[in-house]
Design brief:
transmembrane helix; alpha/beta; 27 helices; elongated; Alpha-Beta Plaits; Arp2/3 complex 21 kDa subunit ARPC3; single chain; cyclic-guanylate-specific phosphodiesterase activity; Diguanylate cyclase/phosphodiesterase; Beta-Lactamase; eight-stranded mixed barrel
Length: about 850
């Protein structure tokens, strides 16, 4: 055992000089010790044994080549070699000088071959001290024993001195270089080196004694054999543990890797994720378990779904015909522990189960997770029958089963989470992310595919009337109808609410239209649910994957185009395909919505006013504030075009506030001029859903100091009755402020006397469609007369809009209608033109309250 220090001082010149001095001391001590031992042990040599020296040098050289480098600390290491074997033999076959020379030549030669020149002198001194200390101790033991020859005890003691000396010198070098090492670490290293040195010396000594045929050496040989056997068994157990750990790691990695691979599969195999690993992967796992246990057969029985039957995977010897019974006693094992069954020791039920498997012996362990049986692992008949399965096999299989159950449970959880992430929990269909993931590859690979978008238009009505439970039932029923119509292979998704999407691969636009018509007919059929039958209507839009420019689009773009087609459906045309003009329309709408706020600030949006005149005395009673938008790109925009878009974008509150501010400012100017003219502002259903709206109106009235009776809010029947529980409290608050409330477009909505009596309104406005038709349609004339009489019976002011002819005005006046509005009186006017109109067409007369009353000139 040689301790050749590998020192590369890196902490400064002081450490380098300190080590040089230490090297000189070691070398000097080695030379001095060699001279002293040489004089103490006289040189006895025969010329016939000249070959011993070179042979020992070769032996030392081979031992050095088999050395192992051990790092002590940064910059220092020593080499553990097997030089004890030639050293112990050298005690018997050569004098000190020959052994020292052979060891020195072999050690320095090894350093030179390895091109290690910075520590040759130090190691030369170590080599000399190793051999001299070994021979010195051996000589002392020899004298104490009194044997004239070299007893094996003396040789063994001397040989152990060599590694001890080199170790002490190396530890001293660590201190010289001021490196830190714990005492426990130094003692542990020294002990291990002495153990290895003892084994090497014992092997070499035993070999020499056997070759030399020494009769008294058999106790040592026996001791060495027993020691080596113990080392072998310890090493074999260590190797077995290592192999078991590798097998355990392999099995866990196989399951985990297959789980990640399954999670990375395309969405076309989303359902396969709930099935766990493929059969081939389970076969690989079973083969790994079989090889590690050296079993004749391994059977995996797995339940990959809670409600599924066991799936069986067999590797090794085939099972007897007939397979395994469903009611297997080995499946009823309690607890997660491994059970070891032998046919000679089992009870009758288990013995029958083993015979059914054709096995004499079996290890069986259940795979459990939270008291749920995931499966069973069985290993049958170890190949080494004389030994059978042992405790290590039981421990390994139990640990494997634990890891396998955990990994399998994690896989099932991962598959469930991924399934839930890509599926709608209500219908079980794909959701939007799942549909986009599933449709991505088909759209890329198949140029003639179609995306369908389906909307049921009664979902919100059913929710409001019957509750969300009934609406959900209707959505589930609609999803089933779509699945039955399209088939199981067509990707189908519920996007949101009662909106669905489907992907039709390899379909032309004509084929897609036919499918859409059939789908719409199925979805529009009545929905019988318990004691109710719900009538429904469906609208279908579709888009092909290649547009007119032959540019492919992604799934998000396809869904957007199909959605445009659905929105473009009108009346009896419930199925429409996407055309590029739809995109232009929606782009125009998008631009309007995004530019609306800036247009308000830039003055592009203005308020025009249409006068209203009381019929009996022709006084100008008020005006209706109407919004207008002069767009720099699109020109003059119709309110019927941009107001619904602004309302859908949630900006109607901004628009209402703008019109209200302008109207109140105009009324305030008239009041300052002595004119008492009211202004009417239209409200949206979204305004009636804002609980803070009455407070905002009250603040605006106070800010402009306008009496509340000079402000009128006009609202439609359908807007109020779409959500009366929310709208009525807002209307009552506004009415309590003194604001006049009017029902606009009366006659086109619910037109119910019961509803009208519930509303806190002051006016009704007859829809202009009836007023325009009075002159030619007796039915319209009757409707107008009925509305006037109904309004007066309820104490309401009746306003007729759409008055464009003198005969219509006269008829309304004869019926007793209170107020008229229309082109006969005036079109909507800007503020400047309204002022000019008032100056030109009205006469002013003093009123009761020192205010001016405007009378329309005839």
């Amino acid at each position: 055992m040689t301790g050749s220090a590998d020192t590369t001082p890196s902490s400064g010149h002081s450490d380098e000089w300190r080590f040089r001095i230490y090297t000189i001391l070691v070398l000097s001590a080695g030379i001095a010790a060699a001279v002293a031992v040489s004089r103490w042990l006289p040189f006895e040599w025969s010329a016939d044994l000249w070959w011993i020296g070179p042979l020992l040098a070769v032996a030392f050289l081979l031992a050095e080549q088999l050395g192992i480098n051990v790092d002590v600390r940064s910059g220092i290491s020593w080499t553990i070699s097997f030089t004890e074997i030639p050293l112990v033999i050298g005690f018997f076959v050569a004098p000190f000088e020959v052994v020292a020379a052979a060891h020195l030549v072999a050690g320095i030669g090894t350093l030179l071959v390895r091109r290690v020149s910075g520590r040759v002198l130090y190691n030369a001194g170590v080599f000399l001290l190793e051999v001299t200390s070994a021979f010195a101790v051996a000589g002392l033991v020899k004298q104490l024993v009194g044997d004239p020859g070299m007893p094996w005890i003396a040789a063994l003691a001397g040989t152990l001195t060599a590694p001890l000396a080199s170790t002490l010198l190396a530890l001293a070098a660590v201190r010289v270089l001021r490196r830190r090492m714990r005492v426990t670490t130094a003692l542990r290293l020294t002990g291990r080196i002495l153990v290895v040195g003892f084994v090497n010396a014992s092997v070499g000594l035993s070999g020499y004694l056997v070759i030399a045929n020494v009769p008294a050496a058999w106790p040592l040989v026996l001791a060495v054999f027993l020691g080596l056997s113990a080392l072998y068994w310890a090493y074999s157990d260590l190797l077995r543990e290592q192999r078991d750990m590798e097998a355990l790691s392999d099995v866990s990695l196989m399951v985990a890797r297959s789980g990640h691979q399954a999670a990375a599969r395309p969405a076309s195999r989303v359902e396969d994720l709930r099935r766990g690993v493929d059969v081939d992967e389970w076969v690989t796992i079973a083969e790994r378990i079989k090889d590690q246990l050296a079993a004749g057969r391994v059977v995996l029985r797995l339940r990959l779904e809670p409600d599924d039957a066991m799936r069986t995977v067999v590797v090794g010897e085939s099972l007897p015909p007939g397979g395994l019974p469903a009611d297997d006693p080995l499946l009823r094992l309690p607890g997660p522990h491994v059970r070891h069954f032998r046919i000679t020791e089992a009870n009758p039920e288990v013995r029958t189960a083993l015979l059914d498997r054709g096995a004499q012996e079996a290890l069986v362990v259940p795979l459990r997770s939270a008291n749920q049986l995931l499966g069973v692992v069985e290993a049958h008949d170890r190949l080494s029958r004389w030994r059978g399965f042992g405790k290590y096999d039981i421990q390994l299989l139990g640990t494997m089963a634990s890891h396998l159950a955990t990994s399998l449970d994690n896989r099932r959880l991962l598959a469930t989470l991924r399934h839930d992430a890509y599926h709608d929990p209500l219908t079980g269909l794909l959701n939007r992310p799942g549909f986009c993931l599933l449709a991505r590859d088909p759209l890329r690979e198949r140029p003639s595919s179609v995306v369908l978008r389906v909307d049921l238009d009664v979902f919100s009505t059913v929710s409001d009337a019957l509750g969300y439970t009934w609406a959900d039932r209707m959505v589930i029923a609609a999803g089933r109808r779509m699945r039955d119509t399209l088939g199981q292979q067509v990707p189908l998704a519920r996007l949101e609410g009662a909106s669905f999407a489907a992907l039709l691969a390899d379909h032309t636009a004509q084929q897609a239209h036919q499918v859409a018509e059939r789908l719409r007919a199925e979805l529009s059929a009545p929905y019988p649910m318990e004691r109710l039958t719900v009538e429904a209507n469906a609208m279908v839009g579709y888009a092909v994957t290649v547009d007119d420019n032959h540019d492919p689009v992604d799934i998000d773009g396809m869904l957007q185009r199909a959605d445009m087609a659905v929105r473009a459906t009108r009346g009896g045309e419930e199925v429409r395909g996407y055309v590029p003009s739809m995109g232009q329309i929606f782009m125009r709408r998008f631009q309007m919505v995004t530019q609306f706020r800036q247009s308000l600030e830039d003055g592009q949006v203005s308020v025009h006013y249409q006068p209203k005149v009381s019929l009996p005395n022709r006084h100008v009673q008020g005006v209706e504030a109407l919004v207008r938008w002069q767009h720099p790109e699109f020109g003059k925009l119709d309110p019927d075009e941009f107001v619904p878009a602004v309302e859908a974008a949630g900006l109607i509150g901004v628009l209402t506030s703008f019109v209200l501010e302008q109207a109140l400012r105009r009324v305030r100017k008239w009041l300052d001029e002595g004119l008492r003219i009211s202004a009417a502002v239209n409200l949206s259903v979204r305004n009636l859903a804002d609980a803070e709206f009455p407070a905002k109106v009250s603040a605006a009235l106070g800010r402009f100091d306008v009496p509340p009776e000079l402000l009128t809010f006009e609202l439609t029947e359908s807007g109020v009755m779409s959500d009366p529980q929310r709208a009525l409290p807002i209307l009552r608050e506004l009415h309590a402020l003194g604001i006049v409330l009017a029902v606009d477009d009366f006659g086109t909505g619910y037109s119910s006397l019961a509803y009208l009596r519930q509303l806190p309104v002051d006016q009704v406005k007859i829809d202009k469609s009836f007023v325009l038709g009075m002159g030619t349609d007796l039915g319209d004339l009757a409707v107008v007369r009925s509305i006037v009489e109904l309004g007066h019976s309820l104490g309401l002011t009746v306003v007729a809009e759409g008055v464009e002819e003198d005969i219509a005005r006269d008829q309304l006046e004869a019926m007793g209608c209170d107020v008229a509005q229309g082109y006969l009186i005036s079109r909507p006017l800007s503020e400047e033109r309204l002022e000019a109109w008032l100056q030109a067409r009205t006469a002013r007369s003093p009123g009761r309250h020192a205010e001016t009353v405007l009378t329309l000139l005839t």
